[in-house]
Amino acid sequence: MVALTKGIIKMDILPKNKMSEEDIKLNFITPALVAKGWQDKITMETTVQFTKGKINIKGNLVKRDAPKKADYILYINANNPIAIVEAKDNKHMVSYGLQQAMTYAKMMDIPFAYSSNGDGFTEHDFLTGKERHLALNDFPTYNELCDRYKSEANNSAGLTPEESLIMEQPYYTSQTTYTPYYYQRKAINRTVNTIAKGQQRILLVMATGTGKTYTAFQIVYRLLKSGLKKKILYLADRNILVDQSIQQDFKPLEKTIHKINFSKDDPTTITSHEVYFSLYQQLAGKDDPDDEDENAQENTAEKLATLFNKDFFDLIIVDECHRGSAKKDSSWRKILEYFTSATQIGMTATPKETKYVSNIDYFGEPIYTYSLREGIDDGFLAPFKVINIKTNIGEGWRPFKGQLDKNGMEIEDRIYSNSDYDYNIELESRTEEVAREITDYLKSTDRRRERKGRC
User: Fold this and answer.
1) What is the architecture of the domain spanning 16-156?
2) pLDDT in tens, 208-230
3) Measuring CA to CA, which of 56, 107, 317, 400 is 20 to 30 A from 369?
4) How far apart are CA 340 and CA 375, in angstroms?
5) Beta bridge partner(s), residue 201
6) Largest Cα span, the chain
């Protein structure tokens, strides 16, 4: 309440238990943090939105839920959040917001969670599992909290020199490059920290559409610039994936990138680059990724040796590692085994675990998983509806006797079901029919027009 007395503005401050949450933040929590020096590090943000809010579809109507927001996130640096503070009004106890702070901290891999009602702070330390209450003027300083994090990390063994080094290396930023979403930052940090600890096989699981290639680029950028890795190989199984990665997400490194071409590459000059892209098939010496010819497997190492020593690469990123590279006896696996001394990162949206195919068998348990459900709940991915399409070729297609494929090879005489289509056999007429149905559906839903409320 503001009163004017003889030209002097007088502010009547409400009793603390009458203040709103925003008043508590303005008059008590923010000054307590500022007094401990957090503002000088440019590490404090207020009311931070870190999800987009789930997209809900009801008929033709689209509406977003409210995004998740944190009152304060404190950072060691731009890469690494260290604490989250949730504020509540003074009608609540000091610890009332701690559970919410802890939930958000777990989502974002933040080691310290705090709640406050303006009277003091309640702290939960995820590194030790301990909780304690602090007076309002006893919040840790930037240096105190950083020192605690560095000493308590790794079960109180402390950070390794490599971890400290990579922690200080920033992401790539530019006017046209967005900063990582919270889950991408989490994937990047976990990966570079795991590498800094010396782990050689790493599996990342991220749903389609959540930016695996962008995440891979930021991992590569930080490792290169920190000096922890110097020669990197990025493997994919389709040319379009390689070319898109080079031209889009990896474009900031274009001067140091080379796309491997065995027919043109000179062994004396190829070593001058930092980041190399290649198809699995090319390095394995074949055109068909499903060809498991024993001679091709035996010749893989011999072919690779014409350009690269076994220890040439110190990091290999395997895109879509749920495909051929997951097979234990795959010739694609021979590439990874040839460069066995390199740190190897498998990235996939759909990890495979069967009797014959296993990502975990080779890469180990995922160090981070961001699922389709999480992406939808956070609002980074839109929910979907299954549309059933009936085709002229349904369950139970069988070739006529002696029928040949496009390559002139006789098709195995048996009954093919839905589980075979696009895996064991590709039927062009069926693919064209499905594509036509999808196109007709998109046209009927006015695919190009922007509507109010559409996401």
Assistant:
1) Alpha-Beta Complex (3.90)
2) 999 999 999 999 999 999 999 99
3) 56
4) 34
5) 344
6) 105
